């Protein structure tokens, strides 16, 4: 476990950049050469609801650096359960961790996932680098495609493993942009493709949160039967509104998050 929140996020960020080169271009576009000018609203991680690597095992790494559990979410159609965590320092990123409810999936998917998880060394899960350790198994591209037919989430995990699935720019802190529409337009003008599932903008001022995201970069992955280019990670953008009490809303909107998951869908 890390003992320093900033070091943990630096490692997660470096690991994310390695498979999401477009993130650097996004930073340049948002008028920032200084990494610190772009405040990260939240990151998201994926896992399976198997005891060894369940959501709580990932959360322990964040709790060790001062995070507290704040909300829970259910995604029936995608067979996911999630929680989000916040640090007492509001400029530290929120953390959104989800897990696939494996027992609700087909027997074939269950067998593949259990086999992958069995290959993870028990001690690796509590090791300092676990949250950005990638895969602990080898799968074939055929297996990846089988998983993809049933669960994009499981397929993504089989190829990428433990790492930030996305980082999120907080529009609230940007100096050159005040609306999500302006951010989206700048992205499109510069050749980025946006996730249009459920509309380019998910959420609304009424639900106190607006979100949009790029479509995932494509990167080459070494499968056991060859190298193939598949979707890796993406960048999200979030604008938060004040609640009636004047405090900024810090939660998540399940209906919007549901569509954000689709940013890693193949295209």
Write a brief caption for the model.
With 267 residues, the chain is α+β, with helices and mostly antiparallel strands.
Can you walk through the features of this model?
By secondary structure, the protein is of the alpha+beta class. Helices cover 30% and strands 24% of the residues. The chain has 8 helices and 10 strands. Strands 2-3-4-1-5-10-7-6 form an 8-stranded mixed β-sheet, sandwiched between helices. Strand 2 and strand 3 (80-87) form a beta hairpin. Helix 5 (141-150) packs antiparallel against helix 6. The N and C termini lie far apart (37 Å). The model has no long low-confidence stretch (mean pLDDT 94). It comes from Pseudoalteromonas peptidolytica F12-50-A1. Pfam families: HGLS (PF07063). Its cofactor is Fe(2+).
Poorly predicted segments: none
The coarse silhouette is globular
Order the strands across the largest sheet as they lie in space: 2-3-4-1-5-10-7-6
Order of helices and strands: HHEHEEEHHHEHEEEEEH
Structural class by SSE content: alpha+beta
Number of strands: 10
Oligomer state equals single chain
Strand content: 15-25%
Report mean pLDDT, rounded to a whole number. 94
Distance between termini? 37 Å
Biggest sheet overview: 8 strands, mixed
Features:
single chain, about 270 residues, alpha+beta, eight-stranded mixed sheet, two-stranded antiparallel sheet, globular, HGLS, EC 1.13.11.93
